[in-house]
Design a protein that fits this description.
about 400 residues, alpha/beta, Rossmann fold, 7-stranded mixed sheet, about 55% helix
């Protein structure tokens, strides 16, 4: 039944959504005026216990235009009609209450002080303001709740289990529920924090601890797992991966916390978990402030720029306003991702992307001639020892020959 309702809603949305959006401003104003009238009528009914005397009924109808005009202008001045109902939050609700009570105060001043209409009940004015706020807030919350409910039962949505019920996980769920374009349905959290067990976040339950990932994924029939612990260490991510062993679904993760600074968590930042996320060593913290005078105004060339070490070098160097950072990398996908990241984080720094192999002397020499670097960081090396023990020729070619080629080009 619920899924049938969801299918019907999504079908109607696709068919009539654009038409409704075209007339949205007029529809919103019409609905708000109707709710103001309903609030005023309810206020009179409450004041007189459901039976409004004929004299007061005439007063009510005589002043309906004034009520709609004053309250309508009040809501317009506070910008209430501009808020998207699906994104309503506490700040919107506070503005609605303030707008409604301010309109009541203005209405009281106009009717009692300027108009001298003493018969108009003061209690009705107060109730009209409170009920207007209640109705306007209620319809917005109802629309938001209905959209979230429909999103959960969207038949085309991917069912997602989220690892980590902290701030990042909460923002991720909010993003899924707010934006139907992602076609994601959060079905549960797992988190080791005992306080969060059996609790809910935006109606999504915490179904267990990290060790329960496989069991929860099977029980909830999830389509993918997202790790929402951007500050988690490599050991934590190894634990998560071990607990997920045997799950035949993709495992994705949010970027490192440093990459999220200044950029809110969203589904657009979710990426597949990589080997770099599982490295046992934690990144070394280099004090680049001491090196700052040696970085500013110079051109840097970083080989292996798309790797875990090379990319971090590029991020650190770019903070201190170099003349240019040359990204030397043989894999176009990692180079492109790093290029976009650096352009976004450091728009004033010149970033030069270069595709090439450090074991090809002619290409390395060409890049050095074109960019004329002042300082070279050579990070283009295979670093996973067990893999290199199985592939010694490739290790020698890349790590030894490549280093020699770069060193000779730097000397020249």
């Amino acid at each position: 039944m619920k899924q049938s309702a969801a299918k019907l809603f999504h079908s109607l949305t696709r068919r009539f959504g654009n038409r409704v959006l075209r007339y949205r401003p007029s529809l919103v104003i019409g609905v708000e005026l109707l709710l103001i009238f309903a609030a005023n009528l309810t206020a009179f009914a409450l004041r007189f216990d459901g039976s409004i005397p004929r004299g007061y009924r005439r007063i009510m109808w005589d002043f309906v235009p004034a009520v709609l005009l004053i309250y309508g202008i009040g809501l317009w001045l506070f910008g209430i009609q501009r808020g998207l109902w699906r994104y309503v939050d506490l700040r919107d609700l506070w503005r609605i209450l303030l707008a409604a009570l301010s309109s009541s105060a203005v209405f009281y001043g106009v009717i009692h002080k300027l108009g001298g209409v003493a018969q108009y009940p003061r209690s009705v004015i107060i109730l009209t303001g409170l009920l207007t706020a209640l109705y306007l807030a209620g319809i917005r919350l109802a629309v938001r709740g209905f959209r979230e409910w429909i999103q959960i039962f969207d038949p085309s949505a991917r069912r997602v289990l989220i690892v980590g019920a902290g701030h990042a996980g909460e923002l991720l769920v909010r993003d899924m529920l707010y934006d139907a374009n992602y076609h994601c349905c959060p079905v549960g959290f797992v988190d080791d924090d005992p306080i969060k067990r059996k609790m809910t976040i935006h109606g999504i339950p915490v179904v267990g601890v990290i060790a329960d990932i496989k069991k929860a994924a099977e029980r909830l029939k999830v389509d993918e797992i997202i790790v929402a612990i951007p500050s988690g260490s490599a050991m934590v991510k190894q634990k998560i991966l071990a607990a997920s062993e045997g799950c035949s679904v993709p495992i994705k993760t949010l970027p490192d916390i440093k990459q999220l600074l200044g950029d809110p968590v969203s589904l657009q930042q979710v990426r597949p978990m990589s080997v770099d996320d599982l490295l046992k060593r934690e990144p070394i913290k280099t004090d680049f402030h001491e090196l700052s005078p040696h970085i500013g105004g110079k051109t840097f060339l970083v080989t292996g720029a798309g790797g875990s070490i090379g990319s971090e070098l590029c991020r650190q160097i770019a903070q201190y306003k170099p003349q240019a950072v040359v990204l030397f990398e043989r894999y176009e996908n990692t180079l492109h991702s790093l290029l976009l990241e650096l352009h976004t984080a450091f728009p004033t720094v010149k970033i030069v992307p270069v595709i090439g192999d450090v074991t090809v002397p002619d290409r390395v020499a060409e890049v050095f001639r074109q960019t004329i670097p002042d300082i070279v960081f050579h990070a283009a090396a295979h670093k996973h020892v067990p893999l290199m023990e199985l592939n010694p020729k490739e290790a020698i070619r890349n790590n030894i020959l490549g280093t020699r080629v770069v060193a000779e080009a730097a000397v020249k």
